[in-house]
Automatic annotation (TrEMBL):
GO molecular function, one term: zinc ion binding
Alphabetical UniProt keywords: Metal-binding, Zinc, Zinc-finger
Domain SWIM-type: 234-272
Organism of origin: Dorcoceras hygrometricum
Zinc in keyword set: yes
Name of the featured protein: SWIM-type domain-containing protein
């Protein structure tokens, strides 16, 4: 099998990894010493190598280990890999080594979409999420809409966390420029309408603190006044059932959210109780939260025609979503996808 580009070879291996139930990643490469051109590339299973070796190699300049979050071991020294090399007489890439066997358990079809190499926010999804954000659609609702459009969370190609990370990157790019952008917008509105009013304040370091703006209608209808509001805190009632040794608060925070409120904690502090009783620590907040849960990936599939239909639909939805994402990026791709053989729609 031949590939024109390294990216095509990795895409092929990654698709194979998705069907097999593991995640792929780039590994080593070799360059031509004369032309400095890559002539050899290797793709491996994400569990290749060992975590201890990776952590020990991460050192700072002053030879101190990098502080990072403690995680469980992920890599198991898996030997599964795909190696490609460049042809000596051409520009294509050919497969030289392929090892299929793994030394670990593979993921189930319902969970494989959560692995790293199978999660990415494509350019089409980035544009779509930006449009959702302009319409003030929350991120969790954006994910629900994508799940409906693509036929399930396993076909979206990314998770809600991936979308939130993309939104954070967008906000980070605007840091230091968002205040200037707002002032430029106010100035442009002032040029359009001389009755438009705006004012802003900065601190001692020149950083944007606060602003006020009013359009023509607002200036005519409303007067700007200053006022001081007073707030009255609502009293809370704490009940202690001595027979059952149980306390409850009228704010109902523990009943609704499963978290003891500050009034309950104050009661414990007054009564010299410095360790929270286990009855007020719900299982959902412990390490055993998932123990005994039902795994959807272990559900047996019977001969129900409706389940068989959904299984076939899920298998095709992922491939169709990839075609749509890639084709919608350019006019040529859209025209090419639109000109697919009519028999595909008449099956």
């Amino acid at each position: 099998m031949r590939f024109a580009l390294i990216d095509e070879a990795f895409s092929f291996y990654n698709q194979y990894a998705r069907q097999a139930g593991f995640s792929a990643r780039l590994n080593n490469s070799k360059k031509n010493k004369i032309t400095n051109e890559v002539v050899w590339k290797q793709f491996v299973c994400f569990k290749e190598g060992y975590t201890d070796e990776i952590r020990s190699s991460k050192k700072l300049i002053h030879d101190q280990p990098i502080r990072e979050r403690a995680r469980g071991g992920v890599r198991t020294g898996c030997k599964s890999k795909l190696t490609i090399g460049k042809e000596q007489t051409g520009s294509n890439w050919i497969i030289s080594i392929f090892i299929e066997n793994h030394n670990h358990q593979l993921s189930t079809p319902s969970k494989v979409h959560l692995l790293r190499s199978h999660r990415s926010v494509s350019a089409a999804k980035k544009t779509l999420t930006q449009q959702f954000a302009e319409a003030n659609v929350p991120t969790y609702q954006q994910m629900r809409l994508l799940e409906i459009e693509y036929g399930g969370a396993e076909h979206v190609g990314c998770t809600e966390r991936d979308i939130r990370n993309f939104e954070k990157e967008q906000r980070d790019e605007q840091k230091g420029f968002d205040a200037e952008t707002l002032i430029e917008f106010f100035e442009s509105e002032k040029e359009k309408n001389s009755d438009f009013f705006f004012s802003y304040e900065t601190d001692s370091e020149g950083r944007f603190c606060r602003c006020f703006w009013a359009d023509h209608d607002g200036c005519m209808v409303y007067d700007i006044i200053s006022f001081q509001s007073s707030s009255i805190s609502k009293p809370r009632v704490l009940s202690h059932n001595q027979k059952m040794d149980y306390i409850s608060c009228s704010c109902m925070k523990f009943e609704f959210e499963g978290i003891p409120c500050r009034h309950m904690l104050a009661f414990f502090r007054i009564n010299q109780v410095f360790k929270l009783p286990e009855k007020y620590i719900l299982k959902r907040w412990t390490r055993d939260a998932k123990v005994g849960g039902h795994l959807l990936g272990q559900k047996n599939v019977d001969d129900n025609p409706e389940k068989c239909l959904m299984s076939r639909h899920s298998k095709l939805s992922y491939k169709a979503a990839m075609v749509i994402d890639n084709a919608s990026l350019t006019d040529e791709g859209t025209d090419h996808a639109d000109d697919l053989p009519p028999k595909l729609t008449l099956i």
